[in-house]
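lol so apparently i was supposed to do this last week
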Amino acid sequence: MEISNAKLAKILRNTAAAYTIKGTGNLFQIRAYENAADNIEHSTAEIQDFWQEGKLNQVSGLGESLRGYLDELFSKGEVRHFEEVKKGIPKIFFDLLDIPGVGPKTADKIAKMGVSSVEQLKKQLKDGELVKMGLSDKLAQKILQGLQEVSQRGNRMLLPYAFAQAEKILNYLQKCPDVLQVHPLGSLRRMVATIGDLDFSASSNSPKKVTEHFCRMPGIARIIDQGENQATVVLKNGLQADLLVGKTDAYGALLQHFTGSKSHNIKLRILANGKGYSLSEFGVKKVSRGQVTGYSQKTETEEEFYRLLGMDAPPPEIREDTGEIEAALEHKLPDLVELYDIKGDLHLHSNFPIKSPSHAPGVDSMEDMVKKAKELGYRWVGISDHPLGFTTSTPKEMIKWVQMRTKFIQNMQSRTKSIRVLNGLEIDILGNGTLSVPDEALATLDYCIAGIHSGHRGSKDEITKRLLSALNSPHVDIISHPTNRLLNERDSSDALWDEVFKLAAKNKKLLEINSHPMRLDLRDDLVRMAKKYGVKFIINTDAHMVSQMDNMLFGVSVARRGWAESKDIVNTWDWTDFAKWFNIKS
Ligand code: DGT
Ligand code: CA
Ligand code: CA
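anyway here it is w/ calcium ion bound
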């Protein structure tokens, strides 16, 4: 039986929720299940593959007992212990947990009101029946909004997962002796935040043999379409893959066509017609008096293809018909930022000791994160832990903790020669726009990141006010993940972005482009809009463990999709300019 990562995460979350409402598990155990579910969901490789290869111990966040249960699950299809924990709880309870904003306690309450299906829930919420039965009006609205989000949510993969899956298929295709070249294309090549299906091109002198090889790939659930030079398959994990095979002399046209986007291609086709060409995935032909003459133009590379149309080749990330065709015709394409340009990361969470943190701390030590930054060739690195909880600590305790941490970092700075270590925090922008840490403590930091970590579903006005208020604080340098979206989970918050960008530019505050695969926030379209106001950005990973520091590539892709150049991104600048921006004495 095939058990996807998503399904596995759901099984663990269901068990944790069952423990919660029955009151049988301890908090530590419930946390362990939830953390394991998070890790599994974000894993780019299939956990079942690890199990098959006897490597479950390589999956981070799985203790010995959980590994035992997963072994039972993969070999028998269910876990006796999990079934016992869930015994007596109605199915509707677990269905309700899939709605954003509904946790175990709310699900239990609704199930006990006699609601038997999600459809019925929708109706009873709209009719106001549940409110009459005692559900708060606010909660009812929140659940309705969650239901709305679920119905709009598509079945799209996160970029790193798509990357990892594409790599496997690519390796397989390269084994075919008839393949000359092979490339992953479509939205993956354009680095879109979420990917619908995977697209591949190959060049070959025997296309049919390549499509046959493709359709023999292990793990295929069904072949949707198989022709001489194209095929579409669905894999057992639900993923769809398309392949187009062409000849070498027109491979540039194939690469271009299958990279898209669709709107870029449509605009290009009209442009080509005006210049006497007809475009297709098979090549470029000359058209004379409305008739295709049959004469094919040689387009071995994409550059050749675009040159035929009198233009430069736009970077794949900006092929969305939002001005790149016009810019390419005028030879004025932007010089987009590259991963190679990045010189540091300022948003990292360590496991520095803390009694009651405001949000989940990191799992690795500051020393290990600094070591990784050196390996990445960075010139500076900043640790920005969450501080103590605002409601669970006094200002005095907060100041004391920040002082202790500052001393620790200063000590580390004095011992570290090959990289600069900076002292930051990621603090909360509270509901009323004030900050969660007293100014006295903030004044001792090298930099301060502020973000909204609660009340994301507030009104456009509320969110705008909170952001503007933080942008007016002299202590805040960076606004983290400004829209607070979580891909496939939570939509972007609404705000008057013109106002936010105007103030960020005026007060010289940075907007973060967060590289976490579920965030990719600020979004590409908003990066482009902010840039027009003169806003500067910083690309950070928000890593909670060393391995996540490799996510920088995804943030850089967002910046590229937003037409950002290295001059727009402060962490590509030289140390002198960077330090000057932050007022750090170098
Ligand atoms: P996805 O899969 O939803 O993440 O997005 P894409 O961009 O990968 O779209 P997909 O897989 O449907 O098609 C791959 C590329 O093929 C697309 O980016 C451009 C090209 N293409 C697909 N449909 C059309 C079409 O109707 N007209 C033109 N001109 N090109 C198309
Ligand atoms: Ca696609
Ligand atoms: Ca496709």
